[in-house]
Backbone:
């Protein structure tokens, strides 16, 4: 079980959190102008990489805030945690 | 047996406290401090079980949690019996009853033993190969296999014991209280780290505590004597918590460990009562020091599994710690010096040691000379090629080993014995280390896997880290502790150490015999009866990956996870396949390290604490009025209110009629309620619902449909505009939490620019829904001041009112098609308002109704229930609800998906009504729908989603999703059931009051 450092509350057990899939996928501002393929790309296509992955997490049983996490999926090492709207760390 | 097999009064055994226990129905005696294993051995019982596959007689092999053979059934005659307990771990208590497993009718005469003589018929993969064909026979095979195999029997009633969970946070966790663990814990605690020290045994000190080797000295004392003093001092150390009988089951990431603390298993039966039996410790440690020690390896040779064949270290522990003699004529078989310590221990107690067989050419350790001086014969460069004795070893045959160790030469010597100690070296207990994700490295010279590297959060000390000799252990411990704890010195920097050193080594994974391997039985996994022969067969049949060989031969897959033989399995595979062991890798050690009871895992979360449940403020009234309840999410909702001996069907028919003919009342408090405020609230609703919200007047209500981004219906409910920037949204009962989460997600991540605040107020309000033609009259009695005319209070509008000075919100909305009002009162007044409605409704025979009637009434009107008539694949169009999707709005959640080629397809499954040809037949929900009866394979067009007998229409009605259903109005379809085909006609989804007249009646 991870120990997750919520940017608003501090270190808490993983069981307080909910994982929310890949981060940095912005909802298109003008969906009607997208082709089926482009919309499908936003809607369905997600990365599943071995290595550092950027993910959304929610402190569901805490402050209920969403934030981002950079996690190495090969060893579950949490490389960084940063707030929504902030840029992902470059390595 | 009257034979006295106790050697001397041991300080760890209380000989004044005699304890009786039963094994296989017979009564025996032992002493407080004995394990079941030591007490049985003291009674000269070695045969304690039969093996899994061949039903070979098996005895006690070890003295710890790694025991593969001596697994027993506790309380065998009780329905709360417990299987697979290790006799080597059970501390005896007054009233203990245990029995052997895997044998029938008894351990001494076992019918399954015939498998042993049929052994050539049971090679690796036997079950896979034999029972595959013919398929139809599988049930018969399974019965036979389950009857004759299987490990023990499971209890068949509820576990009566109490279990508990506890969270622990500490700076340093030390796992294992042998010499390394004790010294590490002492240093950590003394340096102000909050320290927790755990050990699975009931005594601290590990194997050093019963050490008798005079060549191993600390500060000029016997190592064991010195350690006892250290242990005594531990209780004076602040910051140090010690837990014995506590076994770490799992080591997860981020230093999160689960341990089982045994609290009452060792107590007398009468003392166990009403106490917590076991506690699961959930430990989050800043740093973890693993000091889990090492497990002695057996040697793999022909017939190495007879009762009386034991690990050399176990024989030493039984004699030095428990004061119990394992045999009167002992032989040791070894590849290292440690067996000589066991032999000397016995010899010094006056117990006969016949010989030591050593596969090495020689050794110059001091202890060897002591053995020779004692007149004990040592056979160098020899190996055991066979053993004899069915229920107890009676003799061994030895021969000279060839130089390369692959064959034997010369003549065979036979030596009789009743106990054989085997010593194959040591395997560091790295199980927890690998569970944590740490990697191992293989030390080719010493043939051991050791942790690859220590980290800032975790170190391995003592023999689990690969240090076996006293001076080496202490030196490395001091060095590691200083780095790990960031301290300048330890308490043991200048300790004086003296010990023997082992210089001569020889390792042979599979020892040769004079017979061909096909004729031998060298067991590698005792519990699963896997032999070296099986492993070689698997390799011959093409298996290469260690994980595959393991599954095919079942090596290491027993309840002991092959703690003894895994290394030999790897070694034999490497030797046979001609690869290096380090390249072969090792199999994964999975939690738990030793088996856990389900009781410990669930702790207090049983019975009514299994899951949280929620009750509405009117709950007591429902109970008083004999409601039956159903679970809706976590809620307990009134399902129906049976009168006298009414069936559910009768009650629902009565309730449904009453609601349409006069008045009904429903507890709707469980609907999710979200308070929405902020200057962008209207814009926010525009984006989350399919319909338009900007023009909704204050005081008005509107039904909304919410989609997922993929265009599928997600939730629905009525939202009311309370003020310019203030709305109250209702959601489905089951969807409330998810809707709240989804809305927060969009606000925080996609639209942070919107000025909107969400508050879940589900629990703040109690909701009584009045329904039926007389509901207006009832409401008028409760709120006489309120003008209820359609002009002042039309359908889909809201009024804030005072009822007995209590501020309530009344919405005129309807989920039944009847004239209907929802009174929302502050939760604490919910029951009072409800009772007021009941009282006022008496003259109209107001009828409380539950969820079942609510479902029936809405089905008569064709109103959907999200999650029942939809399943995450239905668009508004599929539901024939195009009217609620705004064409003008530029965007809302899911809008773009409604124009995907797939969602626009004509022949999607669509919601329709179904009427049965025979109006009395009620369809089964979930039943499949077809158009042809004779075609094979028949195409499934869809399924029934809701189905009821409508008392108001006096016929059966159903909702269903059917492929291209929109174009099927009037078409005849079939529902094929087990014994009959039911004819149905596709209809409109609205069965009752299609013109919606009753809402304003
Ligand atoms: Zn938080």
Residues:
């Amino acid at each position: 079980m991870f120990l997750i450092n919520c940017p608003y509350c501090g270190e808490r057990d993983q069981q307080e959190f909910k994982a929310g899939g890949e981060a940095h996928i912005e909802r298109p501002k003008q969906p009607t102008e997208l082709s089926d393929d482009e919309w499908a790309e936003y809607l369905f296509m997600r990365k599943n990489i071995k290595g550092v992955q950027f993910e959304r997490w929610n402190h569901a049983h805490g402050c209920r805030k969403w934030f981002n996490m950079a996690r190495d999926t090969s060893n579950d090492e949490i490389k960084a945690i940063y707030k929504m709207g902030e840029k992902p760390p470059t390595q | 047996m009257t034979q006295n097999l106790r050697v001397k009064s041991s300080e760890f055994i209380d000989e004044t406290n005699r304890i009786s226990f039963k094994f296989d129905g017979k009564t025996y005696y032992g002493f407080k401090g004995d394990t079941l294993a030591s007490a049985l051995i003291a009674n000269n019982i070695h045969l304690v079980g039969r093996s899994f596959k061949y039903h070979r007689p098996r005895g006690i092999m070890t003295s710890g949690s790694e025991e593969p053979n001596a697994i027993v059934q506790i309380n065998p005659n009780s329905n709360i019996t417990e299987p697979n307990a290790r006799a080597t771990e059970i501390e005896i208590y007054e009233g203990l009853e245990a029995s052997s497993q895997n044998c029938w009718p008894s351990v001494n005469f076992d019918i399954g033993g015939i498998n042993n003589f049929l052994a050539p018929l049971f090679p690796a993969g036997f079950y896979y190969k034999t029972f595959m064909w013919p398929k139809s026979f599988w049930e018969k095979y399974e019965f036979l296999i389950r009857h004759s195999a299987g490990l023990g029997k499971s209890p068949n009633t509820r576990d009566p014991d109490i279990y508990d969970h506890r969270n622990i946070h500490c700076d340093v966790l030390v796992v294992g209280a042998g010499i390394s663990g004790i010294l590490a814990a002492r240093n950590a605690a003394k340096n102000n780290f909050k320290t927790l020290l755990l050990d699975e045994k009931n005594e601290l000190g590990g194997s050093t505590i019963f050490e008798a080797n005079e060549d191993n000295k600390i500060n000029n004392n016997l190592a064991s004597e010195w350690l006892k003093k250290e242990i005594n001092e531990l209780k004076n150390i602040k910051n140090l918590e010690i837990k014995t009988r506590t076994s770490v089951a799992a080591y997860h990431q981020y230093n999160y460990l689960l341990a089982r603390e045994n609290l009452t298993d060792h107590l007398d039966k009468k003392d166990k009562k009403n106490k917590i039996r076991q506690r699961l410790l959930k430990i989050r440690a800043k740093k973890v020091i693993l000091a889990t020690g090492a497990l002695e390896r057996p040697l793999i040779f022909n017939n190495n599994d007879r009762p009386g064949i034991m690990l050399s270290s176990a024989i030493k522990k039984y004699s030095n710690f428990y004061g119990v003699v394992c045999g009167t004529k002992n032989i040791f078989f070894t590849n290292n010096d440690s067996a000589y310590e066991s032999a000397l221990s016995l010899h010094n107690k006056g117990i006969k040691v016949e010989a030591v067989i050593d596969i090495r050419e020689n050794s110059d350790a001091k202890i060897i000379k002591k053995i020779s001086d004692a007149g004990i014969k040592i056979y160098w460069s020899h190996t055991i090629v066979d053993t004899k004795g069915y229920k107890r070893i009676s003799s061994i045959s030895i021969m000279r080993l060839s130089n390369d160790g692959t064959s034997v030469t010369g003549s065979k010597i036979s030596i009789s014995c009743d106990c054989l100690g085997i010593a194959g070296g040591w395997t560091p207990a790295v199980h927890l280390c690998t569970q944590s994700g740490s990697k191992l490295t293989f030390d080719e010279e010493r043939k051991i896997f050791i942790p690859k590297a220590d980290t800032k959060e975790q170190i391995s000390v003592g023999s689990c880290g690969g240090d076996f000799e006293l001076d080496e252990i202490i030196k490395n411990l001091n060095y590691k502790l200083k780095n790990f704890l960031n301290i300048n010195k330890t308490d043991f920097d200048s300790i004086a150490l003296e010990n023997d050193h082992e210089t001569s080594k020889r390792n042979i994974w599979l020892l040769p015999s004079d017979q061909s391997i096909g004729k031998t039985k060298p067991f590698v996994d005792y519990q699963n009866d896997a032999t070296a022969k099986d492993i070689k067969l698997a390799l011959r049949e093409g298996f290469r990956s260690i994980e595959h060989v393991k599954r095919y031969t079942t090596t290491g897959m027993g309840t002991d996870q092959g703690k003894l033989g895994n290394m030999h399995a790897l070694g034999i595979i490497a030797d046979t396949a001609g690869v290096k062991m380090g390249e072969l890798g090792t199999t994964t050690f999975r939690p738990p390290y030793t088996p856990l009871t389900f009781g410990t895992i669930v702790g207090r979360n049983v019975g009514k604490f299994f899951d949280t449940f929620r009750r509405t403020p009117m709950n007591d009234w429902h109970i008083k009025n004999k409601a039956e309840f159903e679970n809706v999410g976590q809620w307990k909702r009134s399902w129906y209110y049976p009168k006298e001996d009414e069936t559910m069907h009768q009650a629902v028919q009565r309730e449904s009629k009453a609601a349409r003919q006069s008045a009904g009342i429903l507890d709707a408090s469980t609907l999710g309620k979200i308070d929405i405020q902020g200057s962008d609230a209207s814009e926010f609703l525009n984006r989350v619902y399919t319909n338009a919200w900007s023009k909704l007047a204050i005081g008005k209500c509107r039904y909304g449909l919410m989609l997922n981004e993929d265009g599928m219906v997600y939730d629905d409910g009525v939202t009311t505009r309370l003020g310019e920037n203030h709305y109250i949204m209702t959601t489905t009962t089951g969807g409330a939490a998810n809707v709240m989460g989804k809305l927060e997600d969009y606000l925080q991540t996609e639209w942070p620019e919107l000025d909107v605040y969400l508050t879940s107020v589900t629990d703040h309000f109690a909701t009584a829904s009045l329904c039926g033609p007389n509901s207006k009259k009832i409401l008028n009695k409760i709120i006489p001041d309120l003008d209820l005319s359609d002009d002042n209070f039309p359908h889909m509008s809201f009024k804030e009112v005072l009822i007995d000075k209590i501020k309530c919100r009344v919405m005129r909305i309807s989920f039944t098609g009847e004239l209907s009002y929802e009174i929302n009162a502050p939760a604490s007044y919910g029951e009072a308002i409800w009772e007021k409605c009941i009282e006022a409704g008496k003259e109209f025979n107001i009828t409380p109704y539950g969820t079942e009637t609510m479902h029936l009434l809405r089905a008569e009107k064709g109103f959907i229930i999200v999650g029942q008539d939809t399943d995450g694949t239905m668009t508004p169009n599929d539901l024939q609800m195009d009217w609620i999707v705004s064409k003008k709005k530029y965007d809302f959640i899911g809008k773009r998906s409604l124009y995907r080629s797939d969602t626009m397809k004509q022949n999607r499954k669509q919601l329709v009504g179904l009427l049965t040809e025979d109006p009395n037949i009620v369809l089964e929900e979930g039943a499949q729908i077809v158009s042809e009866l004779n075609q094979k394979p028949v195409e499934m067009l869809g399924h029934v989603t809701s189905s009821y007998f409508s008392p108001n229409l006096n016929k059966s009605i159903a909702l269903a999703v059917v492929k291209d259903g929109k174009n099927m109005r009037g078409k005849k379809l079939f529902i094929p059931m087990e014994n009959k085909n039911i004819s149905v006609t596709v209809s409109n989804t609205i069965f009752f009051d299609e013109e919606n007249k009753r809402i304003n009646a």
